[in-house]
Description:
486 residues, alpha+beta, seven-stranded mixed β-sheet, 26% strand
Amino acid sequence: MTxxxxxxxxxxxxVIPVAVAEPAKTPKVLVIGLDGARYDKLLSADTPNIxxxxxxGYGARSALYGSGMAQTSSGPGWSTVLTGVxxxxxxxxxxxxxxxxxxxxxxWLERANTANPALSTYAAVDWKPISDQILRTGQDxxxxxxxxxxxxxxxxxxxxxxxxxxxxxxxxxxSFVYLGQIDIAGHSNGADSSQYAAAMRTNDAQIGRLxxxxxxxxxxxxxxxxxxxxxxxxxxxxxGHGGDSPEExxxxxxxxxxxxxxxxxxxxxxxxxxxxxxxxxxxxDGYAIGTAPVDPFDSATLKPRQDETGVPASVLGWTHxxxxxxxxxxxxxxPQGVAEWxxxxxxxxxxxxxxxxSQQREANVRxxxxxxxxxxxxxxxxxxxxxxxxxxxxxxxxAYDVTGKSNVKLEYVSHYLQEGTQRxxxxxxxxxxxxxxxxxxxxxxxxxxxxxxxxxxxxARTAKVSWRLFEAGNNWYWAVDAPRLS
Length: 486
């Protein structure tokens, strides 16, 4: 190239734009708790601010545990929301908080504060036990009122005013705001009442003010806000909670952001989502929304009731046809019983728990979406087939590739209730060879996460896993979810 040509080219090179990465936005989290708010009523009420947040993000109904694990009351509910672990860990069973293990399972605010003391943490609540029991430490600033004494309508308004000021002017990295009047309206007038809907309208307007306070921050454009709304339990139509009905167990998670999970999140996911957004790692029962492991059972196509006439016809919830590669085999000697439970079935919490409430099926909290169930108790409810033979059914996985491995880890969620001679086995077969039992279930084990180390024979290329429930009459059940071999 001649000097003259180079002289002509240089000015062009100098004006070529260079891509400059935008500075990362500062993560901020606000979790809003609406005590006793039923999700179906929230959606049907005049709640434009909540619906605007839904349109910006994601929302879904979820379900609580039941009496097999804890009451559907505020103590266990808010402990679960704020700690990110289930009641079998935090040990809050009711509103007495007796025997709790909250010191071992701190709130997500305290975890954030411990991991990064520079974060500004805040809580505003007017149900005092949240402050006294769950949020004892870990907040740089805490505003507490006693709604039980002063009344929740006025207290919620004071909470809103304080939270507005904090969110508008403070660093406000991590905040929790609780509003209680919906629950009081539910107790006094029932979930079907105009008073319950009016309390939702009032809290919705207060939420709108909190969002406006955030959006008016001078630094808002450089911030990345995650706003979540949730509840601690539902309400019966007549008012009240604490039991195992679907209405009392009804909870929800609403979250801004881009995550669109295929399976509805659970209450333990609120804390996990808040901490992940803040860049804080923690080992919890929950997953940040959109990060729960993929489960093959969730692809099963479910159908409405057949023999289980107590379940509404609108609730899709069972099939014996598993996902691709999964098989269900029942022994030829097994008599015919209730169609839905004639051997292993794929089902959901909403369907399964309706078949026989308050028998600890509700405590199957570590299962998500669709899971597999062998239920001799319900199978026996048509013609008492156990008087003629035993329940004996096997759920088998596809073949997993184990080429070159000397050992593998088998993981699954197990919810097992024992009675009589009933027992369950987990077996592994390599390259189509004989099954080797790697775990026997014959004692109660509710909502367990099972992890087994399995030795792979030299030269083996495939492994197939089987779950068998047998020697069962009118006994109990076994639920399995999230199987994984790695």
